[in-house]
Amino acid sequence: MATDKIQNLIELREKARLGGGQKRIDSQHSKGKLTARERIEMLLDEGSFEEMDMFVTHRCTNFGMDKDKFLGDGVVVGQGTIDGRLVFVFAQDFTVFGGSLSETVALKICHVMDKAMKVGAPIIGINDSGGARIQEGPNALAGYAEIFERNILASGVVPQISLIFGPCAGGAVYSPALTDFIMMTEENSYMFITGPKVVKSVTGESVSVDELGGAAVHSTKTGVAHLRAENEQEGLATIRRLMSFIPQNNMENAPVVPCNDPVDRLDDALNTLVPDNPNKPYDMKEIITSIVDNNDVLEIQPEFAPNIICAFGRFNGVSTGIIANQPSCLAGVLDCDASRKAARFVRFCDAFNIPILTLVDVPGFLPGTGQEYSGIIVHGAKLMFAYGEATVPKVTVTIRKSYGGSHIVMSCKQLRGDFNYAWPGAEIAVMGPSGAVEVLQAKAIAAIEDKEERAKFIAEKEAEYRDKFANPYQAASMGYIDDVIEPRNTRFRVIRAFESLKNKRLTNPLKKHSNIPL
Ligand code: HXC
Fold it and tell me: Most exposed residue of 66, 189, 292, 334, measured as fewest CB within 10 angstroms of its CB?
């Protein structure tokens, strides 16, 4: 081989690696952003990245574009490993036409998505783009549709993760929205259907980019973002951690990590963690961190609907999805946001063979017009549907309250809970004592004129009701609870239950697909 040909290849590669040129790279850095290649290097195991389609250039001739070409066009794509496991990646390159999506950018993204699907490996996309390449018109739009189609078909087959490290606007938001997890950073990261200028002209509303679609908004209000990081470095490290909890595809299990935390480790503190007064809050996260391996938990959407916790942890090295009501926030009530947050998490776990642990302390669904008008019926049904459809091993521990419809939704025995345990302070009933007495004794209460007498009567009736239902034994006597367990034994009992379920086989009736109440 003539050395000049090899030299030419080396030079072409060097040129391609410069993307839109040093000036634009400097501009990217000056905004506190990494370049597409720097991001990929940081995400993947050192030296594992193999780039593809480096010599692809755009095909547009409009507006003199034929004289303005960059090797690789506006996206860097390829494969590499995370902790030795294969992943496919694409990172939009803002230094080339603002990372805008051309026909060939779409082609490159589709190329890696197709490869990922063929071999059953996760797809990780890093978004930093001005949207559809304006000079290409409908070709750019067609490219988006090609990507969306692949996102949809890959859903539930291989995990898809999106990082938003720059602008992501217009229809472009729908590719990340179709994926399993979205990560945003504090600065430079925003997602919206229409930017502030159009908002102002159409509705008259003045709003900043961050107020409209920054990381804070999407992490707390909309629930669009699942993870939020201070900066890109932290975001990339978190995605590596997330990957350790999830499998390569729907035919495999998540990696099992050797467990050096004793499976029979007791935690005496759990015996006294829950206050005697059922109306007093406590932090459910203390229970979760206590029982998982090495207290290691990765919470998903921690700031959105914090009245329910969705997290990954491990039991004896096996990755597990944990769903838990949080009594320290809105008393752990189920509302629209909590229901849809948990429903999506249950479905992700079920799609990817991740067992589910449910920790229950729920007073019910949040009442009132606010919730009813927002469709609590349909959102609550999503969670019920997700649990009822899920075939992965499911263990439920009722920590304290479990009332009414919310008791059923939270993985009760009759809705396919495999092992259902309760702590001795659990209360399983149609509703709480005060609500029950108000309904059952309405006439009697109205008939008592004296205020003190009335209060005494109500207190007596509530105590009677509490005696009957404020314990797990009524449900246990019917076989609805498999066992009442000592709180400090929870880790061991949960691990043993999952161990016995590891060969669980359950299939749903054949159908084209279900009709989950979306
Ligand atoms: C072509 C684009 C581009 C685009 C940016 N550039 N967006 N080129 N098509 N969509 C180019 C700029 O011309 C510039 O080129 C370089 O990228 C960097 O852009 P700047 O504006 O200098 O950067 P910045 O100030 O950081 O602003 C970033 C930005 C802004 C906010 C994203 O560029 C912007 O508003 N772009 C247009 C966004 C937009 O409306 N896109 C269409 C959305 S609709 P030079 O040569 O100077 O470096 C859509 C439909 C999708 O996407 C439908 C899917 C179904």
Answer: 66
Q: How far is the CA of 176 from the centre of ligand 1 (A)?
A: 18
Residue 354 predicted with pLDDT over 80? yes
Tens digit of each residue's pLDDT (9 = 90 or more) over 274-333: 998 888 999 999 999 999 999 999 999 999 999 999 999 999 999 999 999 999 999 999
Other Cβ atoms less than 10 A from the Cβ of 404: the count is 17
Residue 331 is encoded by which pair of tokens?
Answer: 């008393």
C-beta of residue 284 within 8 angstroms of C-beta of residue 309: yes
Lining residues, ligand 1, CB within 6 Å: 24, 97-98, 100, 130-134, 141, 144, 167, 169-172
Q: Strand 356-362 relative to strand 394-403: parallel, antiparallel, unpaired?
A: parallel
pLDDT given for residue 105 in this prediction: 97
Q: Which pLDDT belongs to residue 16?
A: 96
Tell me, which fold does domain 268-431+471-500 have in CATH?
A: 2-enoyl-CoA Hydratase; Chain A, domain 1 (3.90.226)
Give the start-to-end residue ranges of the domains of the chain: 3-243, 268-431+471-500, 433-469
Task: Please state which CATH class domain 3-243 belongs to.
Answer: alpha beta
Whether 469 and 429 have beta carbons less than 8 Å apart is answered as: yes
Query: Which two tokens mark 9?
Result: 């290849």
Tokens representing 23 are 């000036």
Say which amino acid occupies 345. Answer: F
Q: How far apart are CA 407 and CA 400, in angstroms?
A: 11
How remote is the CA of residue 101 from the centroid of ligand 1, in Å?
10
Q: pLDDT tens, 11-60? A: 999 999 999 999 999 999 999 999 999 999 999 999 999 999 999 999 98
Q: Quick check: do 3-243 and 268-431+471-500 share a fold?
A: yes
- The proportion of the chain whose per-residue pLDDT surpasses 70, expressed as a percent, equals 100
Pocket test for ligand 1, best of 23, 100, 136, 149 (most atoms within 8 A of CB): 100
505, with CB counted inside 10 A (0-12, 13-18, 19+), is exposed
**SS3 per residue for 36-50:** HHHHHHHHCCCCCCE
Look at residues 313, 375, 390 and name the one whose alpha carbon lies nearest to residue 344.
390
How far, in Å, is the centroid of ligand 1 from the Cα of 100? 6
